Automatic annotation (TrEMBL):
Family: Belongs to the universal ribosomal protein uL23 family.
Pfam family, one: Ribosomal_L23
Functional description taken from the UniProt entry: One of the early assembly proteins it binds 23S rRNA. One of the proteins that surrounds the polypeptide exit tunnel on the outside of the ribosome. Forms the main docking site for trigger factor binding to the ribosome.
GO annotations of cellular component type: ribosome
Entry keyword annotation includes rRNA-binding: yes
Quaternary data: Part of the 50S ribosomal subunit. Contacts protein L29, and trigger factor when it is bound to the ribosome.
Gene, per the UniProt record: rplW
Keywords, in A-Z order: Ribonucleoprotein, Ribosomal protein, RNA-binding, rRNA-binding
Protein name (database record): Large ribosomal subunit protein uL23
Organism, as annotated: Albibacterium profundi
SUPFAM superfamilies, sorted: Ribosomal proteins S24e, L23 and L15e
Origin superkingdom: Bacteria
Transmembrane segments: none
Length: 97
């Protein structure tokens, strides 16, 4: 099971990073806080102070087609907000190959 799927790089998440030293990740929906903490510490070599998780429901999507209105929902996902100790940072762009 791959615990960390991808970082969330939105405007709101970047404000959290700049002001509070917090990082957002999309994680596996079966992962618990201890597994997420261990995965972040192992992958980025940092010390995690706390982990907060939430399940984000998908947006409702609708579109007009020839046969009428088609509606559905984007898939839900689990989000983890990681707080690091003071003075530590995660550089997402250094791991790109």
């Amino acid at each position: 099971m791959e615990i960390l799927k991808k970082p969330i790089l939105t405007e709101k998440a970047s404000i959290l990073t700049e002001k509070l030293n917090r990082y957002a990740f999309q994680v596996d929906h079966r992962a618990n806080k201890l597994q997420i903490k261990n995965a972040v510490e192992k992958m980025f070599d940092v010390h995690v102070k706390s982990v907060n998780t939430s399940v984000v429901t998908g947006k409702v999507k609708m579109r007009q087609t020839k046969t009428g209105i088609s509606s559905g929902r984007a898939p839900k996902y689990k989000k983890a907000i990681i707080t690091l100790n003071d003075g530590e940072v995660i550089d997402f762009y250094s791991t790109i190959q």
